[in-house]
Design brief:
signal, Type IX secretion system protein PorQ, 14-stranded antiparallel beta barrel, about 45% strand, globular, single chain
């Protein structure tokens, strides 16, 4: 089974080159759905924790310890955009499989509707929506594998689109030495219906690889994640860049550029420090975000993100803040409840706490 899963991951990457930004439909799928993910820099496929939201990035991170967990998250994004997310997990011991389901909703507020001459016709409320089902199993002692299926729907006034996507992931965990590695192919799928008849657009596919290490004598976990592993140069095509530019396949791209800068733009680095038993502090750095969004002379905290979590027996509370530019950041709030700790509902009453498998 594991061999066939690896083969499917390797074959999932598109054969043609892609350019980031404005080339894919359903871009909201790349928004961090939970504060834990926001604090980790927006991308992580190997973090060792009991947060259910990590299974949204790598289905292999869905574990039996997340049984009956219910999570609700909310973010006030930029320009009045708000999005929310709810997820729940359940472990079916009889078939040794853990399941999860989640809903993600993005609302863009009231938008003025005008005709071609600029006459106001009223307002409308564009929105994006994704429903995800996830399943995960263990293979041998140290391997996990998982699959997520997503139904996606988008509505912008009279324009509608829907689609189906899949995430396939694997994870290797060595609890004795504190290592975990993950590999995931995200958003493989297609549109069912497109905004314009006969114009079908690709989904925001990504191939991500990551590794995390818990230090032995310090309550610290370090992570490094590589995103867009199938494409070397992912720099933004900026026609105003001072260096010379060339036109390639209809895209304006930079001429030249440092190899190390191109490599490092794939990396998101994160650290999570545990203070006692109940508090977690997280910090991350996303180099691609800093290089593309920071103002040249006022970079500030662009590309950095921070988070704090309070984890007690019956509750997880998390907050994260992520900077896109010096004075532009957004906040993310989330709460997780292990329902099996709050109520007894037959087998739902099995007492499984926050401890990660």
């Amino acid at each position: 089974m594991l061999r066939y899963l690896l083969i499917s991951l390797l074959l999932s990457a598109p054969a043609q080159a892609q350019v980031l930004g404005g080339k894919n439909v359903f871009a909201f799928l790349d928004l961090p759905p939970a504060p834990q993910i926001t604090a980790l820099g927006g991308v992580n496929v190997s973090q060792q924790t009991s947060d259910l939201s990590l299974a949204l990035l790598n289905p292999a991170l869905l574990r039996p310890s997340m049984h009956t967990h219910l999570q609700v998250n909310y973010a006030g994004y930029f320009a009045g955009v708000k999005y929310s997310h709810v997820a729940a997990g359940y472990h079916a011991a009889s078939i040794q499989t853990t399941f999860a389901t989640s809903l993600q909703y993005v609302g863009y507020g009231d938008v003025t509707h005008t005709d071609a001459a600029g006459n106001i016709m009223g307002t409308f409320r564009p929105a994006d929506f994704a429903w995800q089902m996830t399943a995960s199993r263990r293979y041998l002692e140290k391997w996990h594998y998982g699959l997520s299926l997503k139904y996606i729907r988008s509505r912008y006034q009279e324009y509608h689109s829907s689609g189906l996507a899949a995430d396939v992931g694997i994870a290797f965990q060595d609890t004795a030495h504190g290592w975990q590695a993950g590999l995931v192919a995200r958003n493989m799928g297609t549109q069912f219906t497109s905004y314009s008849n006969g114009v079908q657009e690709p989904l925001p596919f990504d191939l991500q690889i990551g590794i995390s290490k818990r230090l032995t004598h310090i309550p610290l976990q370090l992570s490094a994640t590589v995103h867009h592993a199938y494409q070397f140069d992912i720099r933004y095509a900026d026609p105003d860049y001072e260096e010379g530019t060339v036109i390639e396949n209809g895209d304006t791209i930079r001429a030249g550029g440092g190899t190390m800068d191109k490599v490092f733009r794939h990396f998101v680095l994160a650290a999570q420090f545990e203070i006692g038993k109940y508090v977690e502090l997280t910090a991350a750095y996303n180099h691609l975000r800093r290089r593309e969004l920071a103002l040249p002379d006022q970079q500030g905290m662009s590309g950095f993100s921070f988070g704090a979590g309070v984890i007690v027996n019956k509750l997880q509370l998390r907050f994260a803040r992520s900077w896109f530019q010096r004075a532009t950041a957004f906040n993310h709030l989330g709460i997780s409840l292990p329902l099996n700790q709050w109520m007894g509902l037959g087998r739902l009453g099995d007492r499984i706490g926050w401890k990660q498998d």
